[in-house]
Amino acid sequence: MKHAGPETFDQLQDLLAELREIPELNERKTGVFYRRSRAFLHFHDDPTGPYADVRLADDSDFVRIRMKTAAEKKRLVREVRVAARS
Question: Which of 3, 54, 59, 72 is the most buried (most CB within 10 A)?
Answer without folding.
Answer: 54
